[in-house]
Amino acid sequence: LGTAFNINAYSDEPVFKTSLIEGAIKVNNKIIEPGQAYVSGKIMQTNIQQDIAWKTGWFDFNGASLEQVMRQLARWYNVEIIYENKTKEYFQGKMDRGLTLNQVLDILEQTGIRFRLQGRQLIVQ
């Protein structure tokens, strides 16, 4: 049928998300269409380009909270995130996954958030 989808199901994420790119999926007698996702038992609209940015070598942080950004960085760079302070920051933009962790942190620090890297621990100050 030519169905293509993306699954985001990491143990550190609060929800599992299945996004439909093309084709159709039937879940609990409901049809999911391209541009929709199945999240926590509900069908919702999603940004497919953001959902599959990882496949093209990008972090897509548009509308992402600090915690969402940090979870992605933790998985990609294999670091543990420790929060000294949490903020309600939301981010806009994309970054190349080919950047080093220090390069990414330098860019993120332009928002006023400070980071300290100690071994494999990334401390959000």
Model description:
Helix content is 19%, strand content 38%. It is of the alpha+beta class and 125 residues long. It folds into two domains: 4-51, no CATH class; 57-124, Phage tail protein beta-alpha-beta fold (3-Layer(bab) Sandwich). The protein has a four-stranded antiparallel sheet with strand order 1-2-5-6, with no helix packed on it. It is elongated and about 50 Å long. The N and C termini lie far apart (49 Å).
CATH class of the largest domain: Alpha Beta
What are the secondary-structure elements, in order, as H or E? EEEEEEHEEHEEEHEE
Main sheet strand line-up: 1-2-5-6
What is the count of DSSP helices, taking H or I runs of 4+ residues?
3
Which range best describes the helical content: under 10%, 10-25%, 25-40%, 40-55%, 55-70% or over 70%? 10-25%
Q: Please give the largest β-sheet.
A: 4 strands, antiparallel
